[in-house]
Design brief:
- This protein is an alpha+beta fold.
- The chain has 2 domains: 4-92, no CATH class; 97-203, no CATH class.
- The protein is 29% helix and 13% strand.
- The chain has 5 helices and 7 strands; from the N terminus they run ββββββαβαααα.
- The protein has a 5-stranded mixed sheet. A two-stranded antiparallel sheet has the order 3-4.
- Helix 2 (97-109) packs across helix 4.
Length: 222
């Protein structure tokens, strides 16, 4: 899988981070890749631009076209983009970005780095998604794709009773929590039945089950 965030140009400099990025609308019929922008320290994209905190950021990048926007979900970002630029040819990444982002967020928050005898700190206190090794990122993407292939049709606004984020983001959270046997997950009341039971059983089934992260000597997460 190609990380769509690598499409973002490096804009960092010794003078500091620029405020956001400039939209480029020279080719409103371009073929663009629409993706959720991965944030560093909650406020900066991977290329060094500063956005501050708020709803997730999404980028649509293609030849002669770049557009950046906040939206509640990937689906909402696509709808808003097509409302303004109906002739764009929009490609999506290989796995739902909201689901993957939620999965990664909770995986880093609910795994300790084992830096001392007590277990150390949650990984997300000292590391970010940018520190995930290529091997682990490939595995995460494959697991998320496999899970969504089996039961993505159950991840709907109607089945997700929690409304603090998109259903896909919340499902990504709960996939990690459920497969690793934490005290919350698909089964704890935030998903309607019978979807909750199916999502739980698939998360804990033979294709998934427990998964643990560790920080290697090279500072990468495996």
């Amino acid at each position: 899988m190609i990380d769509a965030n690598t499409l973002l140009s490096d804009v960092g400099s010794s003078r500091g981070a620029p405020m956001g990025r400039r939209n480029i609308e020279d080719n409103p019929k371009a073929t663009v890749t629409l993706f959720r922008m991965r944030m560093v320290d909650d406020c900066y994209d991977v290329g060094g631009a500063y956005w501050g905190m708020g709803n997730p950021m999404y980028a649509a990048v293609g030849e002669g076209f770049e557009f950046y926007q906040r939206a509640e979900s990937l689906a909402a970002a696509k709808t808003e983009l097509l409302n303004s630029y109906p002739d764009l040819n929009i490609k999506m990444t290989e796995v739902n970005d909201d689901f993957l982002a939620g999965y990664i967020e909770v995986a880093l928050a609910f795994t300790n780095d084992e830096s001392d005898e007590s277990g150390g700190d949650p990984i997300d206190q000292n590391y970010s998604a940018d520190d995930i090794s290529p091997e682990l990122m490939k595995k995460m993407v494959e697991d998320c794709q496999n899970f969504l292939h089996q039961c993505g049709h159950l991840i709907t606004d109607e089945n997700c009773l929690y409304k603090g984020c998109s259903a896909m983001s919340y499902a990504g959270h709960d996939f990690w929590l459920t497969r690793c046997g934490h005290g919350c997950g698909f089964w704890d009341g935030d998903w309607a039945e019978p979807a909750a039971t199916t999502l739980t059983e698939v998360s804990q089934g033979e294709d998934f089950g427990e998964c643990w992260l560790e920080v290697g000597d090279d500072g990468k997460i495996y």
